Amino acid sequence: MLNRTQIGEILHRIAEMFPDAHCELIHANPFELTIAVALSAQCTDQKVNQVTRSLFQKYRTPEDYVSVPLEELEQDIRSIGLFRSKAKNIQALSRMLLEQYDGQVPREHEQLVQLPGVGRKTANVVVSNAFGEPAIAVDTHVERVSKRLGLANWKDSVLEVEKKLMKKVPREEWTQTHHRLIFFGRYHCKAQNPACPACPVLEFCREGKKRMKKLETV
DNA sequence: CTCCCGATAT
DNA sequence: ATATCAGGAG
Predict the structure, then answer these.
(1) What's the rounded Cα separation, in Å, for the pair A56 and A75?
(2) How long is the CA A123 to C1' B7 vector, in angstroms?
(3) Which nucleotide is nearest to A45 (CA to C1')?
(4) What domains appear along chain A, each with residue ranges and CATH number?
(5) A107-160 per-position pLDDT tens digit
C-alpha cells in the first residue's frame, strides 16, 4: 500500500512533531533500566517513575533485591499492578545476574531474554537505551501506530511488526524512530480518541480517514 | 490463548 | 462501567 517515499514522508513528519523523543523511564544505569522496563508492563511510565523514585533508593544492587522477603518487595511495587509476578521475576532476575554475570546486566540480546521477566521488547529497550545497540522495541504504542498507518498489517504479530519496521528504516535510525513512534502513539495517535483531525500524516492513514468519515456523519 | 492486576482516563 | 497502560510466562 505505502511506497518508499510515502513511508519516508510519514516518518519525517512524525520526527518533526517529536524531535526530542526519548526514553521516559527514569534510570541511572543499565540495571535500573532493566528493572524499570520489567515493571512497566501494562502500566504507564509515569506510574513506574513514581514507584522507582523510592524503590531505587531502597534497592541499589541485585543483592539488595534478593536480601528481602518476597512479600516485602511485593508491597514496595504493589501500586504498579501485576505485582506478584513482577516481584518474583525481579528476585529471580537478580539471582541470575549474581550467579551468571557477576551482578552486571549482560549486553547481548540473546542473554537478556534469558532473564526472568525479560522478553524481546524489554531486551530491545535495554540494548538500545543502555548499550547503544540499534533496536526497535515494539510495545503497545508502536504496534498500534504501525498498524493504523499501514506500516504493518492488523494480523501481524509484534515480531512481524518489528521485522517490517526494521526493513523500512535504516539501522542507524532504529532507536530514534522507535522513540518517535512511542511519543506519537502516546501523545497524539492515542488508543482512545486519537487526534486524527489535527494529524500531519492523515493523508497517508487508512484508519485515520476512516475515522474522519465517521466523525462527519455524527 | 489466558492469566496476572492496580491506577487512571474516558 | 469500561478501556488502557513501554509485556511476559505458562
Answers:
(1) 14
(2) 26
(3) C6
(4) 4-20+136-217 (1.10.1670.10), 30-131 (1.10.340.30)
(5) 999 999 999 999 999 999 999 999 999 999 999 999 999 999 999 999 999 999
